[in-house]
Write a structure and sequence with these properties.
By secondary structure, this protein is of the alpha/beta class. The chain has 11 helices and 9 strands. Helix 1 crosses helix 3. The longest helix has 23 residues. It is globular, with a radius of gyration of 20 Å.
């Protein structure tokens, strides 16, 4: 891979952005490789948590500017061309939405700048840790655009609406401390390495739980975020019917009593319907 390195240990996958000389900007190769990685993790079922971190000065400086002049070309002079903008944008959005729909939790360890598309990306994650030097910027407004890959849809679910509007309208930088106070990040650490280690520690703790129960918990939280309490409770009944395992409960209790690591089955490999038979 050109843009990432991927490792997996003790059921924890760690995806590192590794183009520091380019400030880990997001060009076509970035999107293609990220989609391939997420598809692979989704299908394999061996990883039980995913950590995202980065290298160099910034977590990511967002969309590579040359993408707008080369890879992305919109015809805004015709109705047909404008309709195509909608379809192309949905395709871009779908990649980050895969972070949100992944069967396992995703934890971001953020340092330096998390700019433009970086905010789109981390708001699709489950947990966000930051180093003290981290900052967040809804950069699109500064280059004459509306942020369009998830920030304006997910950020209001995470922090107060007035705070979203302040930073979305002005393009100001939100410091790590302000992000913590607003609820965007879970914790702030003194250094980049400390944030990454905290993310890996959290991921390992998640990986020690029954994968199917973690899957069910993620499903329930996301559903409740977007639906009424009554609807969410009804969905919880259906979901628990899917995720419940007396064996897992007994194994968890036995492991606690015997002071050992619990042993749970993996989620299992996903295969596309077209691959069956």
């Amino acid at each position: 891979m050109q843009c990432f390195t991927l490792t997996e240990s003790d059921h924890v996958a760690h995806l590192v952005f590794n183009r520091p000389d380019a400030l880990n900007t997001m060009g076509p190769v970035f999107w293609r490789e990220l989609e391939q990685v997420l598809d692979g993790l989704q299908r394999a079922g061996t990883a039980r948590a995913l950590v995202l971190s980065s290298t160099g000065k910034h977590f990511t400086a967002g969309m590579a500017l040359e993408t707008f002049s080369n890879a992305i070309s919109f015809d805004e002079t015709t109705a047909e061309g404008r309709a195509l903008i909608h379809e192309q944008l949905l395709d871009i959005q779908a990649t980050f939405s895969k972070l949100e729909s992944l069967r396992i939790p995703v934890i971001a360890a953020i340092h330096g700048g998390c700019i433009g598309g970086g905010v789109d990306l981390v708001t699709a994650c489950c947990v966000r840790y930051a180093s003290a030097d981290a900052f967040f910027c809804i950069q699109e407004i500064n280059i004459g655009m509306v942020a369009d890959v998830g920030t304006l849809q997910r950020l209001p679910k995470l922090i107060p609406l007035a705070v979203v509007k302040e930073y979305a309208y002005t393009g100001r930088r939100m410091t790590a401390q302000r992000a913590y106070e607003a609820g965007l990040v879970n914790e702030v650490f003194d250094s980049h390495d400390a944030a990454v280690q905290a993310a890996l520690t959290c991921a390992r703790e998640i990986a020690s739980k029954p994968p199917v129960a973690i899957w069910g918990t993620k499903q329930a939280i996301h559903y409740a975020r977007d639906h009424s309490v009554e609807d969410s409770l009804r969905q919880m009944g259906w979901l628990q019917g899917t995720a419940w395992s007396t064996r897992h409960v007994h194994e968890a209790i036995s492991a606690m009593k015997e002071r050992r690591a619990a042993d749970y089955p993996a989620l299992g490999e996903l295969r596309r319907f077209s691959e069956l038979g």
